[in-house]
Amino acid sequence: MRRRTALILGASVAALTVAATPAFAQGAPAAQNAPVENPANGPVAPGATAPEEVDAGTIVVTGIRGSLEASARTKRNATVIVDSVSAEDIGKLPDVSIADSLARIPGVTAQRLEGRDQRLSIRGLGPDFSTTLLNGREQVTVGDNRGVEFDQYPSEFFQNVNVYKGADPALIAAGISGTVDLRMLRPLAQGKQTIVVSGRGQMNDRKALNPDGTRYGYRASATYVDQFANDTLGIAIGASATQTPTQIERYAAWGFPAAPEVGNNLILGGAKPYVQSNLLKRYGGVATIEWQPSDRLHSTFDALYSHFEETQRLRGIEFPINPGWGAGTTISPGYTVTDGLVTAATINNVVAVQRNDYNRRTAENLSLGWNNDLLIGETTHLKVDASWSRATRTDFLLETYSGTGYNTTGAKDVIRITQNGNGTFGIVPTLDYSNTGIIRLTDPRGWGFNGTSAVVQAGFLNRPDFVDDLKSLRASLDGEFGDLGVIKGWEVGGNFSRRQKDSRYTSYFLCPQGGGTNCTVASGTPTSIAVPADVLLDRQVSLDYLGVPRMLTYDPLKVYGLLNQSFDARPSSLVRDNVVSEDVWTGYAKIVIDGVAGGKPLKGTIGVQVVHTEQSSDGRIASLLNGTVTTAPVSGTVRYTNVLPSATMSVELDPGFYVKLNGAQTMVRPRLDQERITQDVAIDVSKIGRGSLPQNSPFSSTGGNVNLRPYKSTNIDVSLEKYFGAGGYVAMTGFYKHLTDFVDPASSTLFDFSGLLPALSAAQQATIRGQNAQFGLVSQPANSGGGDVLGVEATASLPFKLFTDALDGFGVFVTGTYVDSAIKYGSNPTTAITLPGQSRWVGTGTAYYEKGGFQARATYRYRSSFLAELAGLSANPEFRQGKAEGVLDAQIGYEFKSGPFTGLSILLQGKNLTDTPFVTSEANDPRLVREYQRYTRDYYVGVTYKF
Predict the structure, then answer these.
(1) In the record, which residues are listed under signal peptide (predicted)?
(2) pLDDT of residue 331
(3) Is 659 exposed, middle or buried (0-12, 13-18, 19+ CB in 10 A)?
(4) SS3 of 51, please?
């Protein structure tokens, strides 16, 4: 690993030395040592370029080239390794979403979920290893854990987004992989009254796959910026509304077992094809009040509110196929085997489960922040910042089932399966799944079981809700030394934050009305009912992309009103409720370096953070014995302290040529669901008498671990950067991370369950004690892993005017990243795991033209294969190998620069023009496709007016 690190860093130096040739350097501008922080923009953001004052005579560069110039300026002036995306104009980030924009930054990739870029990985480490800030303040999330879902933030509200790859003592709540800082605009920096209104229409490439879906959407926004009281008081107000549709053809395979019925060759275990129609509705607003009555006082208040509601309509059929998995099927002779995989076969006695599902997620996010900067004396600043962030989310996840009869008693199907060229399997049935004469509302395979007895599960409802609340107070002092050479200034500060996340889960079995109690079969619950005519929709859904011509299509909400509910009281369901709290005290100090050393401009910082944490969780322990569920409250608290030193350096060896070095120890906290204290305890009396081995003990437990510590990392970054005119530059960065306290999510430890012995009979207790079998296994996350991550990032932002004036307006922005890792768990120290979200190779390329009001841009993003994270049963994460993918987006537009339409611009945009699907497979075999999701293309037309 060390040898590869040396080779890569050496290659970085060599490559950039070649790039920074004298031919390019001839036009390099003089060194720019402008301030790199904006004290009114929330807590100090290392490397955030201060807004430039604008007067009436200044020509402001906007659009694509203006965005790239601003991003280059931020990167150049920072001592910490940073990349950024800047707005092309007020209320106009260069992409459809924030996640789209971030995915163009070197070292950043995005995994698509539900047709949108959502899960960001930075330098091969997924969202669990990064943090997201708003104006320098840590944010809560509407997601299940810490990773921010960027859909909650309208992109129109932000002036720039910085991704810090290194650490600085003043950067509170930094991540291991990186820190994403969303920055709102500052009204006093704009220089004049500005009003911007925009609207954009959206259309999917194909018609709605579900009759109650839509292919059309829109987004509208308005921004007002003004200054008052002799430009000492500024306000900025923004509003945004969005309706975004998505159409998805989904295919999921259950797996590929080796089946003796086909000569122990691999066979499709089962399939679950769906069509899905999503509609995301979001509206929000921002407000900023900025007051600077003098050079000695600067005060800024920010507020952001976002509300969104996403509905998903899913319809499909689950086909059990493998006889060995209890499907009850048989396979006809004459099947086809290709390289050990059955690629065509006829399956008999198939009992399929039809699904008409409806999911709705409603969430709100509120963020408030107040920052004050007071100049004391000549150079000392006192800064005080208070913030509050709160997110709430409620899900309504409804499943409804239909089939030919209860528990495989209805008509059986004969299907023909044939593997397609894309790895999916075509499925051609014999039964007509839209025929209400044979299809009923029922539990077709008898899946319903409440832990003690069979229930008629004609549907299932999950209703989780979450509340995430974070309050923070921060204060700091900074100033300058006297004549100490390159030692220019100092800063000390402290921050206190209190975060609490409440996770509550409620679920219900749904069964036909007409008798019985608690949906149990034994109590007389009807096992099926006819499908009422008034719930049917006019158009039947087709799964013809795989071979199913039509299926029964009804309104699941109407069917929900026809079903009884029975509370899900299984221990595994009850223990999901939990509260996790974190009180964090952070103190920091740093020395600021800024001067000339050896005739070369030198800037940097040296400092340390001390972080003390009080971490606690409340929940329940639940168990099931002899048909009785027992629960007990439980709570726990742990305290620990971390010391995190860091240093940054930037030296300008030649005009425009920088060498930057960052070194730091960083940490990031585990997933919130891993910190929960809850446990699902199992008592299996059938194991009594099997011996003393832990796996033979009748006691076991699964849950979280309130004693978890943060992941830790020792980081080294070396960056070589050469800057030209008009925002042009080339850069290459080598990075290395040594990770410790890496969380193994499924570690097992020995535990003494003697406290549970009184729940058993005297004879059972005697047997267990006699064999010393009271020691069982607790499966819970533990800080037992570690390893290394290394890589190289390369960036070239080149306006072609650098080469010749004839190409003025043309340019490219190109990035490439290589990442390698070796992480091992303590439970399996001989086998390296693959990091979720890591692609070994990532690249983006943007070609653009912008001149005279006309602009055109095309962006292609590529990532090699990666370990994708998906939501499994009960929202538990599942990991599978994602196929390499390339996605092409493009846009053209025109802005009127003169005449009666001055200020008006129009835009045409296409997303995923390559129609690239999201594909995962298993066992590193691309033929064994587990998920195949096709989103097709989206088209946008927009109008913006600025006055």
Answers:
(1) 1-25
(2) 97
(3) middle
(4) coil
Planar angle of CA 389, 79, 841, nearest 5 degrees = 80
DSSP annotation of 210 reads S
Distance CA 792, CA 735 (A): 6
- The 10s digit of each residue's pLDDT in 442-496 is 999 999 999 889 999 999 999 999 999 999 999 999 999 988 889 999 999 999 9
Instruction: Count other Cβ atoms within 10 Å, centred on residue 206.
Output: 12
d(CA 913, CA 890) in angstroms, rounded, equals 8
Neighbour-count burial of 524, counting CB atoms closer than 10 A to its CB (0-12 exposed, 13-18 middle, 19+ buried): exposed
- The single-letter code of the amino acid at 587 is G
Residue range 164-182: average pLDDT? 93
| 3-state DSSP assignment of residue 556 | helix
Higher pLDDT, 574 or 59: 574
Structure-token match 């987006």, residue found: 889
Q: How far is Cα 540 from Cα 211, in angstroms, rounded to an integer?
A: 8
What is the C-alpha to C-alpha distance for residues 543 and 212, in angstroms, rounded to an integer? 16
Cα 918 to Cα 52: distance, rounded to the nearest angstrom = 42
Radius of gyration of the chain (CA): 30
Q: Is 171 left (phi over 0), alpha (psi -120 to 50) or beta?
A: beta
Instruction: State how far the Cα of 939 lies from the Cα of 102, in Å rounded to an integer.
Output: 20
**CB half-sphere exposure, 687, CA atoms < 13 A:** 18
Tokens of 40: 């009114």
> Nearest Cα to 410, choosing from 327, 449, 352?
352
Strand, helix or coil at 19? helix
Q: Taking Cα atoms as reference points, which of 260, 423, 447 lies closest to residue 352?
A: 447
- Which residue from 426, 430, 433 is spatially nearest to 414, judged by alpha carbons? 430
SS3 category, 656: coil
- Of the listed ranges 757-766, 796-805, 827-836, the least confidently predicted one is 827-836
What tokens does 339 get?
A: 């390289």
Q: Name the phi and psi angles at 875, rounded to 5.
A: 65, 15
Segment 398-414, tens digit of pLDDT: 999 999 999 999 999 99
DSSP string, 762-806: HHHHHHHHHTTTTEEEEEEEEEEEEEEEEEEEEEEEEEGGGT-GG
Tallying the residues shown for the chain, one arrives at 947
For residues 43 and 65, give the distance between their C-alpha atoms in angstroms, rounded to a whole number.
28
CB atoms within 10 A of CB 509: 26
Paired strand residues for 134: 137, 182
**What is the share, in percent, of the chain residues with pLDDT greater than 70?**
92
Rounded to whole angstroms, how far apart are CA atoms 571 and 589? 48
Where does 422-543 show beta strands of DSSP type E? Answer: 425-428, 440-442, 459-462, 465-480, 487-504, 507-512, 528-530, 541-543
**What single string gives the DSSP state of each residue in 135-173?**
TTEE---SSSSSS--GGGS-GGGEEEEEEE-S--TT-TT
- Angle among Cα 95, 79, 67 to the nearest 5 degrees reads 25
Burial label, 584 (beta-carbon count in 10 A; 0-12, 13-18, 19+): buried
CB 738 within 8 A of CB 788: yes
The whole-angstrom distance between residue 717's C-alpha and the CA centroid of its chain comes to 25
Q: Is 768 helix (H, G, I), strand (E, B) or coil?
A: helix
Integer Cα distance of 308 and 423 in angstroms? 35
532 neighbors 562 (Cβ within 8 angstroms): yes
pLDDT at res. 42: 62
Backbone angles phi and psi of 105, in degrees to 5: -75, 140
